[in-house]
Structure formats: structure tokens, C-alpha cells
User: Fold these one by one.
Assistant:
Number 1:
Amino acid sequence: MNLLGIAGSLRAGSFNASLIRAAGAAAPDGAGVTPFDRLGEIPPYNDDEKQKAIPDAVAALAEDIRAADGLLISTPEYNYGVSGVLKNAIDWISRVPDQPFKNKPIGVMGAAMGGLGTARAQYDLRRSFIFLEGLVMNRPEIFVGAAHTKFDENGALTDAATRDILTDYMKALTAWIERVG
Ligand SMILES: Cc1cc2nc3c(=O)[nH]c(=O)nc-3n(C[C@H](O)[C@H](O)[C@H](O)COP(=O)(O)O)c2cc1C
């Protein structure tokens, strides 16, 4: 089973990118998470007719989404919402013909320095997938708060409790993908 991982942060030491990697390591045998690493190449969406040619990075993301059995999105929380780069990518993909989020199994997670661990951003993100008809797993949920205390300087997840929760989460997500994918 091949999951496409999308971290909604461009930061070199992103906790969300680290969480995507940790999720790949915590996935059950036979499942893997491939990170999408071209989010920073996606230009700001402009709905003017002349601006609507699909950029390479958007075409690549659309293709990767279609090819994946499921998506795993890790969002930061920016000012109580989804990061701009992630929302921008979703807006682009939503305008691709035969939009690829439709009927795609999706896991949502997130890491933040704040105590609520992206809860507000995750519900913000889930709302977009209601309209786009993505099959977001309702539960379990995973909120990684105080992320700066849970990853080391190389981005490795060092918090054992979070690793256990992530392992259970990945078990549930792969079962969800098998069920609805
Ligand atoms: C513009 C901006 C807004 C932020 N707003 C929030 C917020 O609303 N809640 C929160 O918990 N952390 C907030 N933070 C802190 C982020 O949790 C922290 O920067 C985190 O490391 C972002 O994820 P990343 O490591 O994947 O880049 C904000 C950070 C930035 C840069």
C-alpha cells in the first residue's frame, strides 16, 4: 500500500515533515509513505483565465495523488488555520479536471508548538475535503502538541507515547484505506 505524504510546511526543520517520516516508519508491514517534496514550487493560485495553465508541480501532485492508495496530510497550524502553502496546493488541485481528491482516502494529522497540536487547523482542513469529497478518516485523530519537545535536532520522533499513538493511527488509517479505497 502506497500513501502519499504531504506536509504543509516548507521549513527545513519542519515538525510536520518529520511527522510524515515518522508515520512511514510506524506504518504496518506492506505500507509505505512517500513524501511529496515539491510543495514549495507551487505558485499562488490565480483564477484569471490566462493564469490557469497547470504548473508542473501541480501536475506532479495531481498525478501522485491519483497513483496513491491514500493520502496522509500533516498540517501545521498558522493563526488557528491551515498554512497558506497547503491551502494553496489544495485550491490548485481542486481546479484540475476530474479533481483527484474525490473518493480518495485521506488521513489528517498535524504537529504544532502549541498545546492543542493543530486541532483547529485540522478541522479547518477537514472542511475543505467535505466539499472536495475526500474520504477523510474520522477517527482516530492525532494531535502532536509541544512538537519542539518531541523531535530531536535531526527530526527523529523521540517521544515514546507519540510513537505508540502514531503506530495505532497508521494501523487504523491503512485499515480505512483497505475499507474505502
Ligand atoms: C505564521 C505562524 C502562525 C502560527 N500560528 C500558530 C497557531 O495558531 N497555533 C499553534 O499551535 N502554533 C502556531 N504557530 C507555531 C507553529 O506551531 C510552529 O511554527 C510549527 O513549528 C509549525 O510547523 P512546522 O514545524 O511543520 O513548520 C505559528 C507559526 C507561524 C509561523
Number 2:
Amino acid sequence: MRRWNGWGEATTVVELPAQGAGFLAERLGVGRVLPDATLEEALARVPASRLAAHGLYSIEPHDRLLHARGQSLPDWLALREGAPGLYPDAVAFPDSAGQIRQLLALAQTQDLCLIPYGGGTSVAGHINPPDSVRPVVTVSLARMNRLLDLDEHSLLATFGPGASGPQVESQLRARGYTLGHFPQSWELSTLGGWVASRSSGQQSLRYGRIEQLFAGGTLETFAGPLEIATFPASAAGPDLREVVLGCEGRFGIISQVKVRISALPADERFYGVFLPDWSQALQAIRQLAQARVPLSMLRLSNALETETQLALAGHPQQIAWLEKYLALRGAGVGKCMLTFGVTGNRRQNALSLSQARQHLKAFGGVFTGTLLGKKWAQNRFRFPYLRENLWNAGYVVDTLETATDWSNVDNLLERIEQSLRAALAAQGEQVHVFTHLSHVYGEGSSIYTTYVFRPAADYPATLARWQALKHAASQTIVDNGGTISHQHGVGKDHAAYLLREKGALAIDTLQALSRHFDPAGRLNPGTLLQE
Ligand SMILES: Cc1cc2nc3c(=O)[nH]c(=O)nc-3n(C[C@H](O)[C@H](O)[C@H](O)COP(=O)(O)OP(=O)(O)OC[C@H]3O[C@@H](n4cnc5c(N)ncnc54)[C@H](O)[C@@H]3O)c2cc1C
């Protein structure tokens, strides 16, 4: 069963090792534990719905609570307190495009707002109900999760939009294929959500981001269905897939998604390498990306993330042994951990591995084989579960991300980290901040920063701490040549920063598209574009 107030399956627990807890206590002080509300307490706070019961949706408090928030830190705090504040008046679970159209029609006759909802894994406030005089219906696509068509000649698969990562992969794997899209939220996020929020998977180096995988489909809008045919390529004017990608439920509800798939790879391996310092590591991976060495994933942790990961890994004796070995080989204090993968057939993979090893060696890279790579692969979807036990130990963790050109990566990364470290200084609070680069391109890279801090004395004050941190980092990003999001999207949390990034004409253009598809502004108001 899915946790109602946290991440993932309730039965999956990732422990915080004693060494990890000690490491955080040294940096941040002893943790502060805030009391959690029970499910019963949270349910008792759900107000009466403004809608009467209807065959197309549920007005049950349980459904409304479970669809009230996503997975951002403010969402986490609201759910832990048992007080999301705003709730959808109803939750619909359509099982066909026909039912989605009925819901659009009902929204017009009953003056409703609709919020398309995939897996609810948004970390930017995308699916939180607006404070609206109109009743709000959240439209969960969970029942539309099937593989509808497989064109094996063209390697195209058509899915319902609500297929989660495991549902996409299990239906494709049974036929010998993969989509290859593995965001860290893979267990719960959905194909429609990935498209609507321009998601990026951990192996985007091989398979591409969702933009490259999304071939076409249907968007149900108030102006009628927008059908996007698939072509291998087309010069027939602007590509309307770009209207659907990143629309964040503002222009319509995606009812069908066609994706480009691949045959399952014969061979896949992940490896660990330690580089002696950040400046050499950065140069090494930039050149690796620009040389187009065919790797399937690459993740470079800065020195503090490397140190933190080793501390949180548990197994202190093995880690001490590894550190001794690395120091002897020239990767001591300041070392940076790189994980990379090769995916394909054995011959290609052997060649890619040897190219990568040779290249990294020239930068002082110490190759440690597959052990750390295997651990990364085993735990790739488990890290978010650690948030639970960090919270129980009295610490809050959040992440933020951006992308910029190589010439600005180091500068922007440093500024983001500094802005976070300084944001709670007036309160005398330390913030533990570390970063990795995990999506690299010829021209630049994503920057993914994690920050850990202590809750304040109560929930509102803790939220205020987060707001100070988030604002400091977001303003730093847009003021210093970064995009407000490389992969998490805009939602409500980033909407205020979009104008600075895109400019007034671009925002007007997006507003015009929204009015075109949704003249009365019923779809997900406040997300992507501020009201
Ligand atoms: C622990 C964790 C790890 C994460 N890791 C990654 C990562 O590695 N890469 C990454 O890209 N993101 C990541 N995310 C963010 C999140 O998972 C992505 O934004 C994901 O694409 C959201 O998918 P979803 O199905 O949960 O959509 P939701 O959260 O339900 O919705 C997101 C947006 O899409 C819209 N939407 C959803 N379905 C439809 C539809 N059918 N039609 C129209 N609009 C729709 C919603 O209205 C909303 O605006 C992570 C989140 C968490 C909590």
C-alpha cells in the first residue's frame, strides 16, 4: 500500500545508518522531530465537498486527501501535519478518452476546474488544488494504464497516459522491448505525467529525455481533441508535440501517448570511478560528453556529496578500506565519485568501457570496477525512501535542479550552494548542501543539488525555512543563467520565476495557447502560468 503522507510503498524502509546520523548531527546539530498527524486526524480535517455525488467522480474524503498534494517539501510538511489546507472537491478516475471528454463537458455545465493527475509525484506543486470559487475535480488517469498498440516494425508503442513506470516496462519487457525512461520516481510516476512535465530519466544519455521518446498522441481539450500523428521527422511547420510537452495539464488532458521504444539490451553494466578533485572531474566528464563516448548514464558527485554518500552508505569498515586504497592511488580528500553505465551489446559495451576508462585515467581517475555501480543500480529507486527515516531522525531533505552551459556550470553550482548555505544564517541554522551532475550534454549539464536542514519549532516555521531556502536558490538560478528546471517542471513553486527566464512575449504566447484550448481557464489554474 502506498504511504499517504510520504514516499512510496509503506513496506519499503531504508534505514539511516548510525554513522550517517552522526555525520548529520556533526554538521547540523541534533535533529528535531515534529509530531506526525495520523491518517484519522488528517481525514477528520477534510471539509465537506462542494459537489454532490456523481457517477463520474468520488467525493470520498479518503480519495480527496490522497489527491490533495504531491511530493514537494511543502507537500510533505502539509501531509505530515495532516493539514493540506486545500483539497479537491472530487476525484475522477476515467477509464477512456470518452470519459475524459464527458468530464470536460461536465466542467463546462457545472463550472468546475479540472486537475489532470498522473502519479502525483510532482515536486513543484503541480497538482495542488487552487484556492478557487469553482469546485475542483482532480482527474486521476490511473485506470488508463494499458499498452494499446505495439508496432514492432516501427518500434512505436501506444499507451494509456496513466501507465506508471513499472506498468510501462512490464508490458514492454514481456514483448522484448524497453522504453528506457527511468526517473528516480519511476515506481509511481506515469507516462502522461512525464510528457506533461518534460521528465528526464537516469539513462537519458542512451535513450533520450521524454521529449525524444514522445512520438505523438492525443490531447483532449475544450476546443476538441488535438491529434498528433507520428513521423520519424517532419519539416511541416512547428512541431505540435512541443505544445503537449511541458503543458503541465494547462492545455488539455493527454488521453493517449505514442512512444519510441528500443529492443531490450543484451548487456548492461555500471561502474564506479573516483577522480582526485572537482576541477579535474568536471573537465573529464565535459570532454567525455563532447567526445560522444556512448555511455548510458553518468553521474558525478562533488566532493561533499561523495563524502555524504560514503557516510550514509553504512558499512564503515569497508568504506574506510576503500578510502585508504583511493588515497594511496591519489584520490584522497576532495575526491569526487563518478558512476557511469554502458548499455547495449557486449562488444559495443567493451569498447565504450575501454574508451571511458582510458579517458578518465588521463584525469587521475581511479577505477573501482562494478561494485559501486551495482550498488547504484540496486538502490536507484530507493534513495527517496531515506527521506522517511531522515524525518524520523529530525532532518528535512529537499532537492532542486537546473541546467546551464558548460562555461557556466561551475559558477552556477557554486552560487546555488552558497545561496542555500547562507539562507538560514540569520536563524543561526546550518544547511548541509551537496551536488551532482547527472544529465550531460555536448553544450552543458544539469545541476542537481540536495540540501538538508533541521525543522524549526513547528510546521509553519519549518515551511518558512524552506521558503527562504527555495527562494534564495531559485532567484540565484534565474539571475545566473540557469533554467528554473531541467526536469521537475514549473508547477506552482517555480511559476513566479518563469517570466525572468522566458520573457514577457513568451509568457503571453503561452497564455494565448492556454486561452485557445481552455477559454474559461478551468484546467489546472496557477500551474505553469501564474493567475
Ligand atoms: C522521489 C522523486 C524523484 C524524482 N525523480 C525525477 C527524475 O529523476 N526525473 C524527473 O524528470 N522527475 C523526477 N521527479 C519529479 C516527477 O516524478 C516528475 O515530474 C514526473 O514526470 C511527474 O509524473 P507524474 O505522473 O507523477 O505526474 P503528476 O505529478 O501527477 O503531474 C505532473 C504534471 O503533469 C500533469 N499531468 C499528469 N498527467 C497528465 C495527463 N495525462 N494529461 C495532462 N497533464 C497531465 C499534471 O496536471 C501536473 O501538472 C521526481 C519526484 C520524486 C518525488
Number 3:
Amino acid sequence: MASHQNEPPAFSDEEYHIRHSNGHDESRQIWWPFMQNLGWNRGWYDLPTYMDHSKSPGMLLIFPKGGQKPVGHIAATVNSNSTGWVSLFVVDEAYRGKGLGRALWEAMMENFHTCGTKIIGLDGVLEQKGNYERKGFVESTLGTVKIMSRPLVCNKGLPNNVQAGPKAEMVILDQVPHDLLAEHELRLTGVQRTELWTEENLFRRPDAQGWALVRRAPPQGVDDILAWTVIRRCSGGARIGPVYADNAVCARSVLAQAMNAADVDYIKALPLENEPMNTWSSERIRQKATMIAEVWTGNPNAVTVFEELGWSYGGADYHRMWLKGTAPKAQSEGGLAQRGMYAIFDAAIG
Ligand SMILES: CC(C)(COP(=O)(O)OP(=O)(O)OC[C@H]1O[C@@H](n2cnc3c(N)ncnc32)[C@H](O)[C@@H]1OP(=O)(O)O)[C@@H](O)C(=O)NCCC(=O)NCCS
């Protein structure tokens, strides 16, 4: 990542200044404690995943004048096809309500403007919905992003009705050309993230594993992909998403496959920085660790697929919003997301 040390600040007044982060090490010093304190159940490895595929200059940090430690951050995530996502909008609790959020917001919008981003979305918490509405964002009428969870599978076994049919084969994602994953996602969501689904980004992480249900292995084209999913480590245990699928049977099949992998051994093999769970016994992990997913209610089958495999509502939704109400076609009324998107990748980047 380029150094931004010498560039002029994106914003500056007598008390604060905003500049781009100089890299993941600097960003993580503030981002990871924020994630842990907010209980947002992210993973240590998520930050590079969020940032490295984006065409924007990276995370924006706000500093008190003379201070070395940032007190808030935000990022304009810019995808390959001029769509974008409002990401990682957090200000330290002690500094909230003083206009820092607004200053960060304006600097982020400037990044979008410079990058020529045409469609901008976000997944907002309920508390900030009014704030985003004042800034021109309109909630999708199709549905919310529902946080769902369940205990680890832990040898309990899964329902045996997860077969997708004789013509389908389950393969690890390494066997699927990664550009096909990006193409499949683009088709279903209208968002193109060619540089996210790559060996250099997501698949270099030690904790990322994925599976695809395909008509033939290796798949020759995007039409050969029936479903796919990914698991990652997060604070509470394991995160599953996205789940993209042709139909509910295929969705259930890849979800069950991922759930079987998210076991105690997986958690123990991949400790996260400064996490209490690192010292837990296997028994405690078995009892307390969870799987989490962000399930899209705009697909009428999505919640049922998860519920049938023992998942339940975690008690909160993200509100999917689009600037001026302009969503990609695939995520508009009648778009392919309504039947193909079961769980999103991550509310932080859509
Ligand atoms: C969201 C967040 C980053 C805002 O940061 P902040 O520094 O408090 O923001 P500001 O002081 O600039 O206020 C932001 C807006 O909320 C309004 N606001 C601030 N405090 C408020 C309060 N107590 N009641 C009502 N409105 C308030 C401001 O008027 C401002 O609106 P404007 O931009 O239209 O003028 C901060 O609240 C936060 O970190 N929350 C926890 C993390 C989170 O939920 N992030 C959003 C995820 S979607």
C-alpha cells in the first residue's frame, strides 16, 4: 500500500485532521479494538480482505491535532465496476457527537467522487438509519440483512437431506477458477470484485476455506456453478458468507458443507490477535463458540434455509441502503439477488 504520510490532509481544522492510513498495521491498531469493543464479531484477517481489492486510496483516519493515535475511521470501498460501499464508519466513544463522523463522511464521499463511483450502498445499524437518510441514502424495499447464528456443529451431525442431486459435485473453491466466482457474484449482486476472490487476497488467508457445488469439475463457465460459500474465523467462532446459490437445495448443501468444517479444531488452529477464546479449552469452545452469517431477507428462501439447519435470529438487522435509492439491477425489484443471494459476504463491504 502506498504511503500517505506526505500527502495533504483530507480535512484539517484547529482540532483534528484526516488522512489516509499508511497501511494495515496502522489501521489495525484502531480497527481491531473497535471491532472487539463493539462486539461486531469480525476477524483479525478481515481488514486486508476489505481494503486490498478496493480501488480507493484506503482507510481514512481522523487524529486530534498533535496526536499520533487516530480516534475514528471510515473507508470508501470501490469495486471493479464503479459500485462502492460505505465501510468501517466508527468514532471512538469519547469523541462522538462532536462532528468527527461528519468530517470523516465528507472525506469518504470525496474519495468516491474522485474514483467516479456511480452506485453507493451501505449496511447500516438501526441507530444510524436516520443519519444515513439525511445524507441521501434510501433503504432497500426488498429486505434487510439479518444477523443469524447457531452453535458450532460439534459432531452433532447435520440433517441428511442436504444432497443437491446426482448431477452436482461438491469441490473446494480452489478447484473453481476464481474469475468465475467474481463473475457469478456479479451476476447475482451487480457488484464486481475481481480482486477480492483471488489468491493474493481472500484465498491467501490461513482461515479462509470455501466450497462450491458444480455441475462438472472443474467448472468450465459460470453456468456450471450451482452454489458456493466461504468460512472465515471471527471473534465469536466462524463466519459463513457469502452463500450464493441457484436454489434452496443447493444453498443448503454448501451451507451444510461449510458448517461441518467450522468445528472446534478449526477454531483452535486459527487463534485471533488478543482474543479471550485463544485460551479456551476445547470443551468451552464446543459450548460457547458460534457460527454467524448475514442472511438477506430479500430472498424469500434465505432465512428458511438457515433455520432448517439450526440457525436462529441473532436479534439485529442491518439496513441495506443505496444512495438516492439507486441499487444495482441485480439488487433491484425482480433482480437475480432475490433468488440467488442467501447470505451476503460481509456488511462491512456488502
Ligand atoms: C456513527 C458514528 C461513527 C458517528 O460519529 P460521530 O462523530 O458521533 O458523528 P457526528 O458527531 O459527526 O454526528 C453524525 C450525525 O449524527 C448527528 N448526531 C450526533 N450526535 C447525535 C445525537 N446524540 N442525537 C442525534 N443525532 C446526533 C449529527 O448531527 C450528525 O448529523 P449530520 O452529519 O447530519 O450533521 C459514531 O456514532 C459511532 O462510532 N457509532 C458506533 C459505530 C457505528 O454504529 N457505526 C455505524 C455502522 S453502520
